Every structure is written in structure tokens, then in C-alpha cells.
Amino acid sequence: MKKAQNEKTLSKSEKSWILYDVANSAFIMIVTATIPIYFRSLAESAGMDPAVATSVWGGATSISILVLAVLSPLLGAIADYENMKKRIFSVFFALAIAGGILFTFAPGWISFLVFFILSRIGYSACNIFYDAMLIDVTSDERMDRISTYGYAFGYIGSCIPFVAGLLLILNCDALGLAMTSATRISFLITMAWWVLMSVPLYKNVHQKYSVPRQEHLISGTFSRLGRTFQKLSRDKHLLFFILGYFCYIDGVYTIISMATSYGGEVGIDSNAMVLALLLTQFVAFPCSILSGVLAKKFGSMRMIKIFIFMYIAICLFGYGLDTEAEFWILAVCVGICQGGIQALSRSYFGRLIPKEESSEYFGFFDVFGKFADFFGPLIISACAFFLNSSRYGVLSLIVLFIAGLILITLSEKQNAPR
User: Fold this and answer.
1) What is the DSSP letter of 340?
2) What percent of the chain has pLDDT over 70?
3) Which residues pair with 277 in a beta bridge?
4) Using the 8-state DSSP alphabet, how is residue 83 labeled?
5) C-alpha distances out from residue 141 to 20, 131, 350, Å
6) Contacts of 279 (CB under 8 A, 6+ apart)
7) Residues 400, 249: contact at Cβ < 8 Å?
8) pLDDT grade for 384, boundaries at 50, 70 and 90
9) Run of H or E residues at 410
10) Does residue 176 sit in helix, strand or coil?
11) pLDDT at 186 over 80
12) ∠362-233-229 over CA atoms, to 5°?
């Protein structure tokens, strides 16, 4: 009885790791919901066409992702040296917060995009080391559970600063604030929340696995990267999985990052979009935890496949979306599966890799994820620019999900553990 109870109890390091998901999810919440709307208002007030604004926003997202994708393997490899993981994390954490404060007070859409790109790079870089810390805080047997808890509590916890900022925006007239001022204060609330909720990670999460320091840091790191490339090419199970992940997570990230821009283009009211995306967070909370429970019973890979089929249906539904009610339905459907597919992909990968090289491998994992996040918005932006509509871009995401499904099925056939 005592053993069963201990299995259910989270350690201090596990709780602290989960809390960082609560911290940074607040940022990605405004990136998904209010920041695109705020940018659209800046761009359109400067005379930019709505479809062009969608294209520019997608391009900015792609730039931030592309920069980090190039750097991820090197940063991850350096972070695997003793006591380096949290140090490099801190550098990019500072960049993320500083960029967020600067874009809050940016006077125009160009300066806003520049500072947003810097902040987004910092956020994404932190996630490489944060994901790799999963190896340090828990065991293989608990990894699905802790990973899904991170996403689950991230979804629900991010609603606290978001709702505070949203109430400020919706009641700005009664408070004697301009809409722009209220929106900027909401951004600052998010940055303060991000800093505050990150404190437990700094105090209680420590690097457990590492590789020996080398005399020549840079040259030694590049040599390690070369050896890792060779190992990846020989490990067909891991290679097929990460290629499949590249494809299906492309669609997932694109739906997350471009939802409000696409909704605005098809005429959905801004307030309705924000509230619908808030509903997504509440739906995602129990569904993410449930995905961890189901993964223990049916296997992580089987659950990932189920989520891919759900996303194919979401793309078909999104292609024909043109009413507010349909946007609400779409928000619920996305909430059901987005946390589960991300969390189980992270924990499944974490069980396959050498623990002492977790940051390096998660750096490669992040490369595939970030290049995926680069191509998806680029597809949507290209369709918006050349076809004057993003609908065909949404429909084209189905190809990515199907390709991902085929590749992870090939990965399964390599006789690796579930």
C-alpha cells in the first residue's frame, strides 16, 4: 500500500519541472491568442492588407524557428557537459524575458516583430534544456505521466495570467485605459508570471546526467555531434520516429501558432477567438492527463497514432470553417489531442536516448520540431499570399500527418520497445 502511494506522489524535482511548463505556457498562450491580434492591429493601422498581415506574421514565426533550429544541436551538445544545462538555459531565459518587455513597448509593427523574434528564440531555446531535464527529474516508468502532467498543468496554469490580462483588456474603458495600454499591461503580467513560476526549477532541478568536460570545448562538441549523426543514421527505429515526428508535429504546431490569424482572415470575431482558445486550455488539461493514463494501458505509440487521425479530421473541418460556432467546435477538438500528442512524443523520445546525452539528442529533437514549425506557417503564409486564402494551406497539412503516420509505423517495425 505504501509503495502504491509513493508511486502516485510527485517528488519536489518533478513538481518543480512541471511548474516551468506552467510558467512558459503563459507566454505561448498570448503568442497563440492575443499577440497575433495585437500585431494585426498594428499592421492594419499602418495600411497593411489582412492577407498580407497573415503572411508577414507567419514569416516572422518561421524566422525565429529557423534561427534556433540551426543552433539547437550545438547548444544541446554543450549543455550535456557537467553543470552546463541550467547555465545555458538561463542565458536564453533572460533573452526571452527581455525581448518580451521590449516588444511590449515597441512603437510600430516592424520593431514589434524584431523583439518578438528575439523573445520567441529565447523561449524555444529554453525548451530544449527544459525537455532534456525530464531525464534528470524522473524515471523511464514515470516519464509519460510526468510529461503529460507538464502539458496539462501548463494549459490550466497559463490561464491565470491570461484571464487576468483578458479581463483588463475587456474592461479597459471602465478602468480608464486605452486598449493598447491594457494589452501591453497584459503582456507584462505574463512576463512576471513566467519569471515567478520558474523559481522552483532553479532551486530544485539539477543536472543528474552529463558527459565529461573536454579540453577543447567547441571542437570536441562538433566531434560529438558528428558521432551522434552517425548513431542516428544506424538506429532506424529512432531515425524513422524522429522523421515521422517532424511531419506530424509540423501540422500540430502550425494549427497552434496560426489559429487566430486564420480565424481573423475568415472573419471570426477577435473576442470569440480568444475565448475559444481559452476553452482549448481547459479542455486540454484533463485530456492531457488522460492521455498519460491511456498510454500506460495501450502504449504511447498507439495513442500518438490515434491523435494523428484526430488531427486529420481537424484539418478537414478547418478547411470548411466559416462560422463562429465552428471555430468553437474546432477549439474543443484541438484541446482534446494537442497536449497528449506533444507530451507522449517527448516522453517516448526520452526513453529511447542515452541519458547522459539528453540535451544533445533533444537538440536534434528540437531541430526536427523547429523545422516543422518553420515549414507549416510558411505553407499557410504562401497560400495566403499567392492564393489570397489560407484554406488550402490548412488542407495541405493532411499530407504531413499522413507522412508522419507512415514513418512512425515504419519505426515501430524496427523491434524497439514501446
Assistant:
1) H
2) 85
3) none
4) T
5) 21, 16, 11
6) 328, 331, 332, 335
7) no
8) low
9) helix 391-412
10) coil
11) yes
12) 50
Assess contact for 37 and 264: CB atoms under 8 A. yes
Using the structure block, give the residue that is written with the C-alpha cell 475559444. Answer: 276
Strand, coil or helix: 81? strand
User: Residue 310 burial (CB < 10 Å; 0-12/13-18/19+)?
Assistant: middle
Measure the CA angle with vertex 50, ends 378 and 67; round to 5°.
30
Task: Choose among 283, 404, 287, 280: nearest CA to 340.
Answer: 287
CATH of range 12-204+218-412; options 1.10.3810.10, 3.40.630.30, 1.20.1250.20, 3.10.310.10:
1.20.1250.20
Q: In this model, does residue 2 exceed pLDDT 50?
A: no
Query: In angstroms, rounded to a whole number, what is the distance separating the alpha carbons of residues 13 and 208?
Result: 11
Question: Residue 4 pLDDT > 70, yes or no?
Answer: no
In this structure, are residues 390 and 264 in contact, taking their beta carbons and an 8 Å threshold? no
Determine phi and psi for 322, rounding to 5 degrees: -150, 5
Task: Name the amino acid, one letter, at 223.
Answer: S
Grid cell at residue 400 = 504531413
Q: How far is CA 10 from CA 17, 68, 137, 197, 305, in A?
A: 11, 32, 10, 17, 28
Min mean pLDDT across 49-58, 213-222, 267-276 is at 213-222
Q: pTM of this prediction?
A: 0.78
CB 233 within 8 A of CB 410: no
Q: State how far the Cα of 139 lies from the Cα of 32, in Å rounded to an integer.
A: 32
Extended beta strands in 246-389, E state: none
Cell of 18: 512541471
Q: Which residues contact 111 (CB under 8 A, 6 or more apart)?
A: 103
Would you call 409 helix, strand, or coil by DSSP? helix
Residue 299 sits at φ, ψ, to 5 deg, of: 105, 140
Nine cell digits for residue 33: 491568442
Could you tell me the CA-to-CA distances from 271 to 32, 72, 314, 340 in Å, in that order?
13, 36, 22, 27
Instruction: State the pLDDT confidence band at 328, using cuts at 50, 70 and 90.
Output: confident
Using alpha carbons, select from 312, 293, 325, 302 the residue that is nearest to residue 395: 312
CB 192 within 8 A of CB 210: no
What are the residues whose beta carbons fall under 8 Å from the beta carbon of 376, sequence distance 6 or more? 250, 251, 253, 254, 257, 258, 397, 400
Tell me how far apart the alpha carbons of residues 57 and 78 are, in angstroms, rounded to a whole number. Answer: 32
